Amino acid sequence: MNFLKRLFGKPVESHKETDVVLYSEKDNLGTRHDTESKASSYWIGRIAVNNNDPFVMYFFDNEKDAQESLLELPCIHIANDSGKLICTEVLIFGYYQTKEGKYEAIICGSDLTQELWEQAKSSFKKHGGQPLGQGELEPEKRDVHSKSKESAPKKVVFVKEEKQVKMGATFIYRIHKAPDAISAQAFLQQNPVTQKLVYLIVETPEGNYCRDVDGIYKE
User: Fold this and answer.
1) Do 120 and 161 belong together in one domain?
2) Count: domains in the chain
3) Strand pairing partners for 87?
């Protein structure tokens, strides 16, 4: 079944070879880190704003182990149209080769649950990973209000468009409002961004959800 998951996506409960869920790039809700430069930019920005989002980040001797460690997580799959990893949760994820020839794998974000954090630690260790520096930051203990994945997304309303000139470049921010995170995520999933410096922002009571050319993320 691991072969089927790598090739087609996560099998459904029946486990029949004909009953598989096919994932594609449009199902990706996360921000993929597939190069060291993307990861470095994230960590520089994280330090600058004192971001303490939970994470698990280990290094591996080879690409296969790094990829397999992520594919064991329930939200990570391979898109059948691009062949790349996707994430069905609003998280930072992925793996990339470093200048030293090692491979770093990461799962990270404010929506990283305690359960998924534990699963990632277990899977990364199982596949021979070693903590990178601190290696991991546990989610804060908090009351978790269950998200109903079955609830229908509600209407997302356009608020305004803002343009800001920074370092000679024009950044475009298209701001929307939604009643909840599920509605925001559904809207962003259906509205890909193909231009650099364009940002879709959906404000919700649960925080702001955003999308740019690299994917969906939570502010």
Assistant:
1) no
2) 2
3) 76
Two tokens, residue 15 = 């486990």
Q: Which pLDDT tens digit goes with each residue over 45-101? A: 998 888 999 999 999 999 999 999 999 999 999 999 999 999 999 999 999 999 999
On whether the CB atoms of residues 57 and 118 are closer than 8 A, the answer is no
> In terms of Cα–Cα distance, which of 216, 218, 219, 213 is closest to 198?
213
Where do runs of H (alpha helix) occur along 49-148? 63-71, 114-126
107: domain range?
2-137
Q: Are strands 198-204 and 207-212 parallel, antiparallel or unpaired?
A: antiparallel
Question: Which of 137, 170, 201 is the last residue before a domain boundary?
Answer: 137
| Residue 65 maps to a domain | yes
Backbone φ/ψ region at 50: left (φ over 0), alpha (ψ -120 to 50), beta: left
